[in-house]
Amino acid sequence: MVSLSRALVLAIVQLGDPAILKVLAKTAVVTLLVFAAGGTALYVALDSAIGTAFGIEAAGLGALAAAAATVLAAWFLFRVVALFVLQFFAEDVVRAVEQRHYPQAAANARRIGFGEELGHALRSLGRTLVANALALPVAGLLLFTGVGAAAVFLVVNALLVGRELHDAVWLPHRVHAAEAAPIGGATRFLLGAVVVALLAIPFLNLLAPILGAASATHLVHRAREKGPHA
């Protein structure tokens, strides 16, 4: 099986592919629009609430409060939103990689309809929100350690992200539901950990889901060539 480092290198090399650049542009624009829409709604709500509570002369504080809240939300929720958005474009990334490196697999892949994509995206979003909510009390107990809370969220989200990226590649090729996943849990976790780490870095966080989907494509197809969990 191709190593994770090799899969990442292959993914980086293909970033200049027009098909990949198109997906990058779409995911970046949609992700930023989601935060812009959220920030606007938050501004309207806070501006109205502050104006009602403290008088019209204080209503301008809503803009400052909304801006601060939007920045905080972007910092904590960017990975959730970016990966949710990518669910709708991951197929384009996978197809671009398959057409260049695995043409036979590309020819045999089944098309996933919008309804199925939406179902996967909503289930992914649900798992992410529930898992992070459950991890929050544990992270709170470890907050005094300085790194414990961050480690908890890294582990939780690495497991989630690794699974989602793997499934984005695997589902169009899976013959039946009971068929074993081609790569093991450890590899999926490491892939997820790399992507989660990149999501925490400004600007690189826009590339992280694309690199993750492309890397997962190499990992899955090379593993399929060797057999499950090779």
From TrEMBL:
Keywords: Membrane, Transmembrane, Transmembrane helix
InterPro entries per the UniProt record, alphabetical: CysZ/EI24
Compartment(s) where it occurs, according to its Swiss-Prot or TrEMBL record: Membrane
Membrane-spanning segments: 28-46, 58-78, 134-160, 189-211
Main subcellular location of this protein, as a coarse class: membrane
Topological type in the membrane: Multi-pass membrane protein
Protein name: Uncharacterized protein involved in cysteine biosynthesis
Protein species of origin: Qipengyuania citrea
